[in-house]
Amino acid sequence: MKLNQVINLHKGLTPIIVLSLMGLFNNFSLAAYIYLALHGTYGVLWLLKEKIFPDPYFKEEINPITSLIGFLFLGSYWIAPFILISSKKNVPIPIIAACISINIIGVFLHFASDAQKFFTLQIRKGLIKDGFFKNIRNTNYLGEILIYFSFALLSWSFIPFLVLALFFFAVFLPRMFKKDKSLSKYIEFGDYKNNSGLLLPKFYGK
């Protein structure tokens, strides 16, 4: 099995899981529907992304045990909708609005930057240091973090933030460092690194 198949299964099941939770706990509140719309749509968009501009990193083969562990690890992202829906929390409308805005920004950064990377590399190989990657070396990861931050915030609980922190230090940060190491083979990477941020823009000079 390939890593992307495990990820795709999780993304595709998300709207079904959220809708099932809504039915199980008889919670059809505004917050629950907003969560379904945001996280469910993100799952659908991810599957479309896989068809149009897939990430070759996720094509690696993994064994059945690793696949199961990976799926269960990804399943921790479902803690947010479980808490929101099972507890029937009354999420303040300004928080819901903020979650929608953060999610939209995250989706834009995540998918648009991934598209830039994919199609640019189709034309020319090498270091990409313009567009979405001019000031931030990992705009796609920033977008994905914002997306899951919006889900955590909408749950109105601190627990999904702990899950997000776990993913940040166990998955996102190591991948960003690994990417920097891979890009260091390019002569111009030194200057690029000095003038761009790992996850946020640099607001100071060399």
Which key phrases capture this entry?
206 residues, mainly alpha
Q: Write down how many β-strands occur, each being a DSSP E stretch of 2 or more residues.
A: 0
Radius of gyration: 18 Å
Average pLDDT metric: 95
**Derived structural class:** mainly alpha
Helix tally? Answer: 8
Q: What is the N-to-C order of secondary-structure elements (H for helix, E for strand)? A: HHHHHHHH
Shape: globular
Number of self-contained structural domains: 1
Unreliable spans are none
Share of helical residues: over 70%
SSE blueprint and pairings:
Layout: H1 3-24, H2 30-52, H3 64-75, H4 79-87, H5 93-123, H6 139-155, H7 159-183, H8 189-194
Describe this structure in words.
The mean pLDDT is 95. Helix 1 (3-24) packs parallel to helix 3 and helix 1 (3-24) runs parallel beside helix 4 (79-87). The protein is 70% helix and 0% strand. By secondary structure, the chain is an all-alpha fold. It contains eight helices and no strands. It has one domain. The protein has helices at residues 3-24, 30-52, 64-75, 79-87, 93-123, 139-155, 159-183, 189-194.
State the gist of this model.
With 206 residues, the protein is an all-alpha fold. The protein has helices spanning 3-24, 30-52, 64-75, 79-87, 93-123, 139-155, 159-183, 189-194. It is globular, with a radius of gyration of 18 Å.
